[in-house]
């Protein structure tokens, strides 16, 4: 994992430099795993995220915007009681491990100065956030661990906080060649030995050290080891590695053979790597039922289309019934009452083959013919009904496919609006819950193009409808992915021609927030708003347009992330 002891050390140092003597002003709990603190330090407001998520555990200063729940959970209220208004006295890493300790001083209800310790343990699925008093008695944790689960230490209120067992490993600095050669032998893979022998090294950085050594010589490995550790400690550079598996580290990891992206700061690296990942997880937690409903409705209509298509194939036999009726009438003179069948020449066939027609013996020849004509009429009417139903099912599929796409890139606020839309359209029943504070107007994301033109993006159908039909002006420019579900994108300009930079920025947004996000060469249509029309009796956000121009663009997530986002 990228968040090893060396990374934790770098994070603790950066937090210490920025947050020491800072005041904790506000505390929010974003999900079951995440706490966000607003801390006033060095004359600036800093947002500090504590995450104990099994896959995204970390502590960082973040510049991303988060949605704060209306109702704070119990743990959040407990932290507010004990830490709000407190001053961060000290921040340190514990035992070169993935543990950071915050020492916080604050005044209690009587005005006495108290000391509290806040520990964050960044250990995958065992990650935790623990608040203790000055005697290390646990006041509360974000995850309670009973003695039945962990016999070594209990992590629940009232227990004494005990650090995880110490690993008997060597500190990576300083290390002489003599000591290094005693610890590392030729008997086993070097990367595994580096992890086993040295504190704070993850398999990720161990593989990089081996890669940089170039040879199997122990001296070369030692040189690569000392150079790499020195670079991490004293000259870090913040890199994202993009490829089949994304990663990040304090140095470029050449052994991954990935695309390298250099970030200016540690926090920018974290924000870019975790952008959308933990947000997506929060939405899964809170809107699992909604996502499942949307997926089920899409699948239900897909199955309905398949079934109706089969019925349509069967109904195409309608013409056969008419032909059989005509053949009976043409040969009525040959049919005797009580006959169960008749074999006649089929003049509808090019080869004039003979065909056997089943008859009802209790009916006359004329009545048998009428029976086949009735079957024809019924089948013909069924075809019209089936086509009508197929059209409806296909529209529903398109609608729910659009919603699935919107949920993939939705923020929490967007997800709430999608839920609201489903309630308004009658797909979901409104629950009698405490009313959320909602704006009368849908929220719309706002960006600046690379040459400074405002661009607006609708992230769901409510936003798309409002953006295109109420917010937009007739002469402004409208962008949308061609022939696929996607966001409505509006360029706030009525210029005769848009600059290439603005077109590229708007097209990137339209392609990224569309079904073609993971494709290449996505066609993007753009036209004046006045050429965009609602589809009568269709769902919100469905439109037709004309007089469009089309450009092709490769979606680039990092281009979108680097576009300036306005509030």
CATH architecture assignment name of the largest domain = Roll
The residue-averaged pLDDT reads: 90
Number of helices: 14
Shape: elongated
Please bin the fraction of helical residues: 25-40%
Protein model, in words:
The structure is a single chain. With 567 residues, the chain is an alpha+beta fold. It folds into four domains: 5-141, ibrinogen binding protein from staphylococcus aureus domain (ibrinogen binding protein from staphylococcus aureus fold), CATH 2.30.310; 177-277, no CATH class; 290-408, Helix Hairpins (Orthogonal Bundle); 445-566, no CATH class. It has 14 helices and 23 strands. A hairpin with a 6-residue loop joins β3 and β4. α4 (190-197) crosses α5 and α9 (318-330) runs antiparallel to α10 (365-408).
């Amino acid at each position: 994992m990228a968040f090893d002891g060396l990374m934790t050390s770098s994070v603790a140092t950066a937090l210490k430099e920025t947050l020491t003597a800072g005041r904790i002003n506000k505390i929010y709990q974003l999900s079951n795993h995440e706490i966000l603190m607003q801390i006033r330090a060095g004359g600036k407001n800093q947002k500090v995220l504590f995450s104990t998520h099994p896959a995204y555990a970390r502590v960082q200063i973040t510049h991303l915007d988060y949605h704060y729940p209306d109702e704070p959970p119990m743990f959040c209220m407990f932290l507010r009681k004990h830490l709000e208004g407190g001053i961060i006295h000290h921040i340190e890493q514990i035992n070169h491990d993935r543990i950071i300790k915050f020492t916080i001083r604050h005044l209690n209800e009587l005005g006495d100065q108290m000391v509290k310790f806040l520990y964050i343990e960044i250990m995958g699925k065992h990650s935790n956030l623990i608040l203790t008093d000055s005697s290390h008695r646990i006041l509360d944790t974000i995850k309670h661990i009973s003695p039945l689960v962990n016999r070594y230490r209990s992590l629940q209120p009232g227990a004494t906080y005990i650090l995880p067992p110490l690993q008997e490993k060597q500190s990576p600095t300083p290390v002489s060649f003599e000591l290094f050669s005693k610890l590392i032998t030729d008997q086993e893979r070097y990367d595994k030995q580096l992890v086993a022998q040295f504190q704070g090294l993850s398999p990720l950085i161990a593989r990089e050290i081996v890669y940089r050594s170039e040879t199997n010589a122990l001296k070369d490995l030692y040189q690569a080891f000392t150079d790499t550790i020195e670079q991490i400690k004293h000259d870090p550079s913040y890199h994202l590695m993009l490829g089949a598996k994304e990663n990040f580290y304090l140095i470029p990891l050449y052994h991954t053979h990935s695309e390298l992206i250099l970030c200016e700061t540690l926090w920018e690296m974290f924000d870019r790597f975790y952008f959308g990942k933990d947000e997506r997880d929060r939405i899964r937690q809170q809107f699992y039922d909604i996502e499942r409903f949307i997926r089920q409705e899409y699948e239900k209509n897909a199955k309905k289309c398949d079934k109706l298509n089969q019925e349509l194939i069967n109904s195409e036999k309608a013409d056969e019934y008419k032909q059989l009726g005509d053949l009976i009438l043409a040969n009525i003179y040959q049919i005797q009452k009580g006959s169960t069948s008749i074999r006649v020449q089929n003049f509808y066939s090019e080869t004039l083959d003979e065909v056997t027609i089943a008859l009802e013996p209790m009916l006359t020849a004329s009545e048998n013919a009428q029976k086949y004509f009735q079957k024809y009429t019924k089948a013909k009417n069924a075809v019209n009904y089936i086509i009508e139903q197929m059209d409806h099912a296909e529209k529903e599929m398109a609608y729910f496919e659009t919603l699935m796409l919107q949920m993939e890139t939705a923020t929490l606020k967007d997800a709430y609006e999608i839920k609201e839309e489903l309630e308004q359209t009658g797909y979901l029943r409104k629950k009698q819950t405490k009313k959320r504070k909602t704006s009368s107007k849908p929220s719309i994301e706002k960006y600046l193009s690379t040459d400074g033109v405002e661009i607006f993006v609708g992230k769901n159908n409510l936003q798309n409808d409002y953006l295109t039909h109420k917010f937009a002006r007739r002469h402004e420019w409208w962008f949308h992915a061609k022939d696929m579900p996607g966001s409505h994108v509006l360029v706030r300009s009525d210029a005769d021609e848009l600059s290439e930079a603005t077109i590229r920025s708007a097209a990137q947004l339209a392609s990224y927030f569309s079904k073609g996000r993971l494709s290449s060469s996505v066609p993007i249509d753009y036209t004046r708003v006045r050429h965009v029309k609602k589809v009568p009796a269709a769902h919100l956000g469905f439109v037709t347009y004309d007089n469009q121009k089309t450009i092709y663009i490769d979606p680039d997530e990092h281009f979108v992330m680097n576009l300036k986002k306005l509030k």
